[in-house]
Amino acid sequence: MSSGFGLNGGRGRCFPFWQDFAKCYVQTDAPREDCRLQFEDYQECLYHRKELLRMSIVQEEYEKAQARKAKDDHKKS
């Protein structure tokens, strides 16, 4: 969490990303442009959206490959 405290009372896993973003935000005149990457890193740490998207793409490709393999095996029989 941005407060710095995790669920178990220690440092939160995303707190270092929040610190980077906050540091950038304070030091720049155009935070929307200059701090976009730090903000994306912080958001990814919180929600894992990019990771989940990649996992779903890999899963889809795996399922397609399995379906092709099953189709080819069925044709050979």
TrEMBL record:
InterPro entries per record: NADH_UbQ_OxRdtase_FeS-su5
The organism's place on the tree of life at top rank: Eukaryota
Membrane-protein topology: Peripheral membrane protein
Chief location of this protein within or outside the cell: mitochondrion
Any one cellular-component term (Gene Ontology): mitochondrial intermembrane space
Keywords for this protein: Disulfide bond, Electron transport, Membrane, Mitochondrion, Mitochondrion inner membrane, Respiratory chain, Transport
Pfam families according to UniProt: Ndufs5
Subcellular location: Mitochondrion inner membrane; Mitochondrion intermembrane space
Cystine crosslinks: C14-C45, C24-C35
Recorded family membership: Belongs to the complex I NDUFS5 subunit family.
Subunit-structure text: Mammalian complex I is composed of 45 different subunits. This is a component of the iron-sulfur (IP) fragment of the enzyme.
Entry protein name: NADH dehydrogenase [ubiquinone] iron-sulfur protein 5
Organism: Geranomyces variabilis
